[in-house]
Each structure stands twice: as structure tokens, then as C-alpha cells.
Amino acid sequence: MAMNIKRPNGTEDVLPKDVHKWHTVEKIARETAISFGFSEIRIPTFENTDLFLRSVGETTDVVQKEMYTVMAKETKFTLRPEGTAGTIRAMLQNGLLNEALPQRVFYILSCFRHERPQAGRLREFHQFGLEMAGSASPAADAEVISLAKTILDRLGLRNIELHINSIGCPVCRAKYHDALRSYFDARKDELCDTCRERLVKNPMRILDCKSPICREIGKDAPVILDYLCEECSDHFDKLKKYLTKLGIDYSVDPKIVRGLDYYTKTVFEFVTTEIGAQGTVCGGGRYDGLIEQLGGQHTPALGFGMGIERLLLVMDKQGCDYLPVKKCDIYFATMGDAALEKAMELSDQLREYGFYAEFDLMGRGLKAQMKYANKIGALFSAVIGDNELDSGKIKIKNMAEGKDIEIALDKDFTNNFESLYFTTVMNGLEDEKILQSGNVIKENDNNG
């Protein structure tokens, strides 16, 4: 019996009919980042496991429950659960931080986390992300947030709210940890096993627990904003001022801590209520200690990640526009071997000009070929048979208008088709005057 092999749980196939949606997000995100001075970087899909233990944090859900790790010849490798750690490793290893600062890079990549699959939460998911290294200024925070908002706006998304918070620096966070331990210690027996361990090692991680019980216990916990030192408080105040100056609306949400340990000071999320529980479409913040933690000189840095699948969920929900699907520019229907060879030759010429040209590869009859041309949405079609080869002329049919234009099958065929294409498709039909020059012989109202 044949095996019925399916894709792994928590993964998705992107079919040809949907890939233009991905191209839309990737194109807009890429072009927006470039306009802000960012350059693309590409990093490995897997890294040494120690990289994520040192950066993401041993008390996070990602490290404790969600990483895909394999042993290969006594070395542990992990499929990347996020993009920042590997990108910073690449910047350090390749000397980017020795060049002019700030260094600005962006990426489009897949990430892997062993989570319970649901809408907007997959085990293999894709992110657009970016990192800026070198600036400690809150203006850099505002710049990165502005970039994220510009992408969301250009995608046509609506009702996306910006939530911001500050989680302080190691100095003020130590006092906050003491306050959290005092708060949670009174109910530690009600916490999940993981959070009882976090209470000792990193009590702030309890605020990020997905357990409903731990969330309920933590809803009245002390907030970090009451414990910020003067420097962190000033940084946050300036960020709010800059966002207001840029006309970016925001809400201060003291519950945002983000799920990774490397964050310091500013953290932010762009959220929506339109895709259920997984409403964060972009999240990020500052991580001033990460580069030093990974072996570099102290270098302030910040960034964000956008989940592409979540963005597409919201765009579909809101009816946003996508880039158009590229349709066949011309389909050649052929009758006989000589006609097939001519269609191959003409298609090859047109493709050199960037046109999408097709001809029959299935041995269909003429009627079936024309039905196929309609199905693929061909803008033009042409029938090639012995008559066309003998006369040296071919009728190009505008599929939308049902009108034929006769063009000579000579060395100027491609130029004349290009003129016909741009006059017709780009500028629209102009009554009966489509093209009067070159080797176009005549306009014909024959719809056959």
C-alpha cells in the first residue's frame, strides 16, 4: 500500500496561487527598510545551541520548551527560534561592528519553535526582522518603531495599535526582581512548575507565562515602570516625546516584557484584535547587553521581528490589496510540428524581453489549447499553423477585447509585439486605432 506522507504538523505549504501575497509583504518590507538605510543579511538556518542559551535565556519558554536541537558528532546544533541572536553573531564574526556605526541590517527568514499549532502560531514560521547596532539614543528607538509602522501602513493594515514599555537596565531591574519575588512568593504553590523555578532565577519571566493560572496571579504584580532608574526613565520619556513628534500614537503597557531575556529598556509591540489570541504582528525592543554577552565590545543595539504569516492573516481579514499575479502575456496555440517549433522560437525571443510566453506542451487539440489559454488568463493568444507559416503573418488576439492584430513573422516580430503590448495593456485600447506603423498589417474584427 502506498504511503500517504503529509507535511509535518505546524508547518504550511505556500501554493502558487498565494505566493504573490508573500511577495507583497517581502517587497514592501524590503524597500521600506532600504529607504531607512538598512541592508540585507542572510544567516544560517541552524547555529550552535550555546548561542541561544546565552542570548535568548535559559528561563524562557523558547529555550525550556520550544527549541529544535540535534546532536551531530558531539556538537549540539539548534534550528534558529528567532533571528536576532544569529544576526548579531554574524555581525560580530564578520567584523561589521568595526565599521561605521550604526550598523543596520534586515533579514527575511524562517524560524522554528515546537509550540502548539494554531492560527498565527506555527512550528515553522517566517519573519521579516532588522537590527540596528551602535546607537544608545532613544531617537534610534523611535526610528526603528517608525520603520515598523511605515511597513504596516504601506501594507494597508488598519486598527493596529502600538504598545510600548520600558523593562529597565540591570541596575533598576534588580530592585524590580526583588519586588516580584516578594509578590509571587506568597502564592508560589499555585504557580506552574516552570514558574516556581523562574521565581528563583528570573521572576520577570513569570509575567510571560502562557499558563492561565500564572497569568491570573500575575495580573496585579508590581510594574517595572515604578522601579526605573533615572537614566531608564529619561530614555523612556524621550522616546515618548519623539513618537509624539512623529505623529505615532501609542499606549504604555507595563505588562509587555517580551519573551526573550536579552531585552533592556524599550520594548514594543504592534497588536491587533482581529486574529484572535495571537494578535502581536510585530515585536521588538532594545538589547544593549547582548553584543557584549556574545563576546563583543559593549555596543547598544535594538531591533524587531514581524511574523509574515500573522501579517497575511490580518491582511486577508481586512481585505488589503496585494501585488497582482503575473499572467501569461501571450499563449501560442499550435497545429503540427513545424508550428510547435515556431512557437518555441517566438517564445524564446519574447522571454528575452521579459515577457511571459507559453505554448502547448500537452499535445492538445486547438479548442482545448484555447480553453487552456483562457484558464491561465493569457492577455493575448495566437494560433500558428501551416497557413501562418506559409503567409509569414500571425494574428495576435486580445483575449479581453476579442480583436485580432496581424503581425509579420519576421525579425521585427518581438519589437512589434512589445509595441502592441504596451499600447494595448499599458495605455488601453483606443477605439480601432491600436497600432498603425511597423510591420502590423491590419486590424481585424474577426473573433475566431
What's the short story on this structure?
The chain is of the alpha+beta class and 448 residues long.
Q: Can you offer a commentary on this structure?
A:
- By secondary structure, the chain is of the alpha+beta class.
- It folds into 2 domains: 19-169 and 229-318, 2-Layer Sandwich (BirA Bifunctional Protein, domain 2), CATH 3.30.930; 330-444, Anticodon-binding domain (Rossmann fold), CATH 3.40.50.
- The chain contains 15 helices and 17 strands.
- It has helices at residues 19-35, 49-55, 61-66, 84-93, 138-154, 170-185, 193-201, 212-218, 230-245, 290-293, 308-318, 337-352, 366-375, 386-391, 413-426; strands at residues 39-40, 46-48, 69-72, 75-79, 103-112, 124-133, 161-166, 251-252, 264-271, 280-286, 301-307, 330-334, 357-359, 380-384, 393-398, 403-408, 440-444.
- The strands form 3 sheets. It has an 8-stranded mixed sheet with strand order 1-5-6-11-10-9-7-8, sandwiched between helices. A 6-stranded mixed sheet has the order 13-12-14-15-16-17, with helices on both faces. Strands 2-4-3 form a 3-stranded antiparallel sheet.
- Helix 12 links the parallel strand 12 (330-334) and strand 13 (357-359).
- Helix 1 (19-35) packs antiparallel against helix 5 (138-154) and helix 5 runs parallel beside helix 9 (230-245).
- The protein is elongated, with a radius of gyration of 29 Å.
- The two termini are 49 Å apart.
- The model is unreliable at 429-448 (pLDDT under 50).
